[in-house]
Amino acid sequence: MQKTFTEFSTKAILKIGDEELLSAYKTPKQPELYTFIRTGISPLEIIVDSIPYSIAPNNILVLTTAQYFQFLKGVNVQVYQFNREFYCIKDHDQQVSCAGLLFFGNVHMPIIALNTNEAKKFETLHDVFLDELETKDNIQAEMLRMLMARFIIISTRLLKSKQGFVETVKNTKIDLLREFNMLVEAHFKTQHSVTFYADKLFKSPKTLSNTFAKLNTTPLQIIHERLVLEAKRLLIYTDKAAKEIAYEIGFDDASHLSRLFKKHTATSPSDFKKQHKKIS
């Protein structure tokens, strides 16, 4: 089952479906759409950025457009996909926007476990979504955006309550982390220094370090982890050589990437690529 809403004036797209909607990802690729998947009564088997996951029943997982996603097995799932034109151009609170906690927190792929009552809420919301998709009038787009906002608000609340680090610090620290992650996502290929991001945030590097220490991370660690993740993606999913990848993500000398990559993975980029080819 797959239902699609399109708004030609804005090029907005919303897709709602089941595992049939995931069949396009039998081979790994980037979704190109923001994606929520809610598991039903059986597990979901997937691979994200070369890492296999078995998602338990009654969970919600969140995927961004940057990740490589592969669908292996699963039934009775509910899938929501939308582009920036559908939701992200609207004015939303920072925590529930497309730059919010679900997409730019400090979790690579948020997975939210639902209890029975929470699962019922999402099931009811899903029925309303499907009903609204059948209602063709001049306020349909706004209604669907309101429903998606509700979906994201509920999911964000649950993430905040279930992810311990969010509840143990003030929102200002989480907001700073989110803004930092957004900037890193936008500039990591060309800017590798903490000073650049600190200047953008009107903070000192020391302030960032002290704040992030309370969140069990550091600004430089976030930058380096994003660089290594991108290198991994390109090594696994493209034919580019390690030297070519190094230049693509802003290293003048391929040996600099090699040292950073080996520090985080205990292997060189070239060996990592060879090892993955053997596995696949």
Give a structural overview.
This protein has 280 residues and is α+β, with helices and mostly antiparallel strands. The protein has helices at residues 19-22, 84-88, 101-104, 116-133, 140-162, 164-167, 171-187, 194-200, 205-213, 219-237, 242-248, 254-265, 269-279; strands at 2-7, 12-17, 34-38, 44-48, 51-55, 59-63, 69-73, 78-82, 111-113. Strand 4 (44-48) and strand 5 form a beta hairpin. The longest helix is centred in the middle third of the chain and has 23 residues, at 140-162. The radius of gyration is 20 Å and the shape is globular. The two termini are 31 Å apart.
Question: What is the element string, with H for helices and E for strands?
Answer: EEHEEEEEEHHEHHHHHHHHHH
The major β-sheet equals: 6 strands, antiparallel
Number of separate domains: 2
Strands ordered across the widest β-sheet: 1-2-8-3-6-9
Indicate the percent of residues in helices.
Answer: 40-55%
**Shape by Cα distribution:** globular
**Helix/strand structural class:** alpha+beta
Tell me the span between the first and last alpha carbons.
31 Å
> What is the CATH T-level topology of the largest domain?
Jelly Rolls
